[in-house]
Amino acid sequence: MYVHVVKSKIHRVKVTGADLNYIGSITIDEDLMDAANIIEGEKVQVVNNTNGERLETYAIPGPRKSGEITLNGAAARKVAAGDVLILMTYAMLELEEAKQFKPALVFPNEENNLLT
């Protein structure tokens, strides 16, 4: 049997931009992606703590040490600069493996989205 488990979580980052005219995705500072074990193109669940919106998109790397969190394409309508988000990815693991698995949990600086 397989179960879905949280693989990665970036907790409480602020939206730095929303680009309606860009091809859909979420741009995430590559340092945050590395810390959370998120790869380019991976599906990401976006939970907006500010307005309650939830959506799924895919990750693209942003410049390192930029703190960038930009929602692109239609997802840009679901956020505003300064909104606080939680970003999560999931994996399917066999039950016994899932019992031992530990997700990558990242808690960046809430003011600038950088790792401390």
TrEMBL record:
Substrate binds at residues 57, 73-75. One of its GO terms (molecular function) is aspartate 1-decarboxylase activity. Its EC number is 4.1.1.11. One of its GO terms (cellular component) is cytosol. Its cofactor is pyruvate. Pathway: Cofactor biosynthesis; (R)-pantothenate biosynthesis; beta-alanine from L-aspartate: step 1/1. Is synthesized initially as an inactive proenzyme, which is activated by self-cleavage at a specific serine bond to produce a beta-subunit with a hydroxyl group at its C-terminus and an alpha-subunit with a pyruvoyl group at its N-terminus. Keywords: Autocatalytic cleavage, Cytoplasm, Decarboxylase, Lyase, Pantothenate biosynthesis, Pyruvate, Schiff base, Zymogen. Its main location: cytoplasm. GO terms for biological process: alanine biosynthetic process; pantothenate biosynthetic process. It catalyses: L-aspartate + H(+) = beta-alanine + CO2. Catalyzes the pyruvoyl-dependent decarboxylation of aspartate to produce beta-alanine. Belongs to the PanD family. This is Aspartate 1-decarboxylase. It comes from Psychroflexus salis. The gene is panD.
